[in-house]
Amino acid sequence: MHTFQQTGAILFAIAAVASAQSGSASSSPAPSSSTSGILAQKSPEWLPKFNVSGVSTSYPTGAPDTGETLDKTTLDIKSYPNAWEPASTNHPEIEAVMKAIDWTKVPKATPAKADKDGNVVFGNYDEDKDPYCWWSDTNCVKPKVDYLPEDVYYCPKAGDWGLNYDDGPYNPSDEDAELNKYAEPVLYNFLANNNNQKATLFYIGSNVVTYPAAAKRALNNGHVLCSHTWSHPAMTTQTNKQVVAELYWTLRAIKEATGVTTKCWRPPFGDVDDRVRAIAWQMGMTTMIWNKDSNDWNMPGDGGGDLPWDTVDGYFEGWVEGRKNGSDNTVGTICLEHELNNATVKMTEKWLPTLQQTFDVKSIHDCMGITQPYWEQNWVYPENASGNSTTGNANSTASSSSSAAASSSSSSASSGSSDASGSAEAAGASSGTTASESSSTTSGAASNFSVSSAALGVVMVVATAFMY
Ligand SMILES: *[C@@H]1O[C@H](CO)[C@@H](O)[C@H](O)[C@H]1NC(C)=O
Ligand SMILES: *[C@@H]1O[C@H](CO)[C@@H](O)[C@H](O)[C@H]1NC(C)=O
Ligand SMILES: *[C@@H]1O[C@H](CO)[C@@H](O)[C@H](O)[C@H]1NC(C)=O
Ligand SMILES: *[C@@H]1O[C@H](CO)[C@@H](O)[C@H](O)[C@H]1NC(C)=O
Ligand SMILES: *[C@@H]1O[C@H](CO)[C@@H](O)[C@H](O)[C@H]1NC(C)=O
Ligand SMILES: *[C@@H]1O[C@H](CO)[C@@H](O)[C@H](O)[C@H]1NC(C)=O
Ligand SMILES: *[C@@H]1O[C@H](CO)[C@@H](O)[C@H](O)[C@H]1NC(C)=O
Ligand SMILES: [Zn+2]
């Protein structure tokens, strides 16, 4: 069932993304055709302009900021839906986006249903034909329509490790002093202090409006910011307008906090199909999944689960061993990790130094060769900015001999052990458990915002036995 993809295909997809994503946030819309056949994107013109202070306007070349405190001022929250509640659709700004989308280029999949426990129901979806390339059901990453690019889900070059964290920025907790010790800027300082490591960060809009200073810090320290929706629903269960709203309010929050309009997003639980991809693409974003899963969210911790610490250690040990003994030699890694609670932060503190000795650790964007992750043209990340140089010329101790183009073997066959099932993003899986990472993120939000448990209880049940 799983669609194995060849490296050549993703290289084509990268080129297609690069050629289709043109223009700047302030320029006129790009033409609506492109030679690759991929639908050309338009620079989002429906976002307001903001005067943002306290952020770099170009890639930072100085020493990273490792100050231990961050301002707790929120954005202008009256302009947004309530944090952690479903993104409101009844709003003129949403109508403007709806009008800008070419709905003839959005496949007409019926929104998925959720059962009474919030699990996505596959019903009689034809998973053999997989007409909408529904990742949750089949792990499909190559859209069935020819005008959308393949998802980004692994680094093309063996030995590359595209470091990334979901669900941030990790807000301080008002109730739990222990958890507070791990809220941002703790992880960002740890990265800065370890070879000035860069990462790609998938942000929840609700967490950005309540803690914009953390988003500024991340941008200023050279990380790449992407969207992870407003309230973390399973996106295939959302109507078209709800999909727009979940994406819109997050784009707006990231832009108001940092001045950048991001071109990347990751669906919560990996739950995406061609309908959702097409809307995200027309809103200016590429879909990014993963090819390894640490399951870190499921360790005991605030809102986590009961996955033993040793199990997650075992995954990392296996990946390191596989790279060292030469069996992990086809493509690089995009491993799902979280900035979520004390446990996930501790796991990074434990493993990042070893990963840096074993792999070429870099942001997803760096491993993909994407140097302009935002619609604003002034932001250009250096090529090969692996991490230990603020000027971006660092190189790590890992050797990455095989070139992306030379590798044509299956991307997914490599060494994933844990990711077959049970991740937060792919939650539930074999055991059909109902733990959800998303509930844990709520405590990160400032206490003045109410939390809709209905919005958070969504858990995926995915088919078992993927070797992904
Ligand atoms: C931003 O600042 C400029 C100059 O200070 C001002 O002219 C403009 O009106 C401001 N724009 C917004 C949206 O506040
Ligand atoms: C290399 O390491 C991987 C992961 O631990 C393991 O599955 C595989 O058997 C090892 N191969 C060899 C040749 O030692
Ligand atoms: C995380 O913090 C909670 C208290 O909020 C504690 O019960 C738990 O043991 C901590 N987990 C780790 C791995 O530190
Ligand atoms: C980055 O790495 C690639 C492949 O190793 C190389 O072709 C390219 O020249 C490098 N770019 C810079 C700016 O060093
Ligand atoms: C970069 O990282 C490598 C490996 O950790 C280290 O040996 C090297 O000294 C670092 N270089 C700089 C300039 O920090
Ligand atoms: C990495 O750094 C070493 C030492 O500075 C240098 O000899 C080597 O060419 C560099 N490798 C890359 C790929 O830039
Ligand atoms: C919550 O609201 C009260 C009263 O409006 C305010 O004093 C307090 O600072 C707010 N707390 C947060 C975390 O925003
Ligand atoms: Zn998530």
Describe this structure in words.
- This protein is of the alpha/beta class and 468 residues long.
- It has a single domain (7-55, 75-456), classed as TIM Barrel (Alpha-Beta Barrel).
- Helices cover 28% and strands 7% of the residues.
- The chain is built from 14 helices and 10 strands.
- It has a 4-stranded parallel beta sheet. A two-stranded antiparallel sheet has the order 1-2. It has a two-stranded parallel ribbon with strand order 6-7.
- α9 links the parallel β6 and β7.
- It is globular and about 50 Å long.
- The N and C termini lie close together (11 Å).
- Residues 1-19, 22-33, 388-424 and 426-468 have low confidence and may be disordered.
- Bound molecules: 2-acetamido-2-deoxy-beta-D-glucopyranose (7 copies) and zinc ion.
- One 2-acetamido-2-deoxy-beta-D-glucopyranose is lined by residues 446-448.
- Keywords: Signal.
- Residues 1-20 form the signal peptide.
- One of its GO terms (biological process) is carbohydrate metabolic process.
- Residues 159-364 form the NodB homology domain.
- GO terms for molecular function: chitin deacetylase activity.
The counted number of beta strands is: 10
- As for the CATH topology, it is TIM Barrel
| Biggest sheet layout | 4 strands, parallel
Query: What is the CATH class?
Result: Alpha Beta
Oligomerization state of this entry? Answer: single chain
How many individual helices?
14
Nearest-integer average pLDDT:
80
Question: What brief labels describe this structure?
Answer:
alpha/beta; disordered C terminus; disordered N terminus; binds zinc ion; 468 residues; binds 2-acetamido-2-deoxy-beta-D-glucopyranose; TIM Barrel; single chain; globular; 10 strands; 4-stranded parallel sheet
